[in-house]
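Thread: FAD-dependent oxidoreductase, structure

OP (GT): Posting the sequence first so everyone is looking at the same thing. Length is 423 residues per the record. Can we get the structure tokens written out before standup tomorrow? I want them in the notebook alongside the other entries.
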Amino acid sequence: MKSHVPVVVIGGGQAGLSVSWYLGRAGVEHLVVEADTAVHAWADKRWDNFTLVTPNWHCKLPGYTYDGPDPDGFMTRDQVVEWLHGWLETFEPPLVEHTKVTRLQRLSGDRFELTLDGPDGMRSVTCDQAVIATGGYPLPVVPPFASSLDPAVHQVHSEEYFNPEQLPDGSVLVVGSGQSGTQIAEDLHLAGRQVHLAIGNAPRVARFYRGRDCMTWLSDMGLYDTPTQEYPGGRAAQEKTNHYVTGRDGGRDIDLRRFATEGMKLYGVLTDGKDAELRFAPTLTAALDRADAVYNSICGDIDRHIEKLGIEAPEASRYEPVWAPEVDPTELDLAAEGVTSIIWAIGYRPDYRWIEASAFDGGGRPMQTRGITEVPGLSFIGLPWMHTWGSGRFLGIDRDARYVAEHVVESVCDGRARLVVAQ
């Protein structure tokens, strides 16, 4: 490892490695630094029955697309890992693994100094361009009152959950109704565990509608390609949790109301707790109604798209609730209900404290335009909504990586070279 490298990409996931793919083809000397191993999160932070929620044809990386037998299906965790390793066999990124960047400091003369902690100890490397590819929200969130709950209750974050067998016998409380929370609740429910689910404001979407996957319709409608500044709903829409749905067993809706008819117990937002007593806001009815309204609204958008283009498709329909709570529950006695485990699925938060540069807003999020910041030489890749709704997903990574790489190549070459890659 040299003491100076023109470009350092920090993070060896699919986003950082996509930038590396383009830099390599442009002949730009660079280094990719990964704290663990390449694309390790797919194998290490997904539960055993995990599947993609986007169709396989969405899976596109530089020089590599899904070409398997089921483009409209949903790869399992292990299939995604195999697919990604197949991509890594198509090129040789200058990757250093098991090495963490603990500090990035801007020096005079428009250079950065990186402090690296690896197998051989601490060392420093300087670079002209730093591309941050560590993910948008690396720190799992657990509420402050979690430590005051009964220590006999086993607590894990969603990224630590793999299967029902790892949990003690008894009922399980899942907190959070985003994609991970609802799918983990389903996983436990299908395994025969008594599940309690505290839901928030996450919307939902139909898996299939009028003969096609909803996400295929939305892609055709341009929703994944619309720039953030033009997206309907603006910042408020971008801050919402992604719609919950599943690709399990070929794909289907996640209908929490149906789960309730089968014995799952639903609650509103968890607000507080101590020992074995938990308290919830009376928001369950409104949350279910709101999720269903979004579901039907998306179906309506698809209907208008079909009508506008004169597409032949099965008849339109709308979701009708199969269950409604008689009253919104506000309390749960963990001991009385036999709850022995809690799975926190309430998301992640950003953590860029190791970067010493004025590139962040008051909430600690990068201030960037398509990954490029106002700090010369500092850029980001792999952020949710970095450019479009597709950013951060397989569908949008290639486009985002190419844009960032083009900027880096022009900067390193003082504008004398442009990225030219055969598509």
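GT: Both are above now. Quick notes for whoever picks this up: The two ends are 31 Å apart (CA to CA). The first helix runs from residue 14 to 25.
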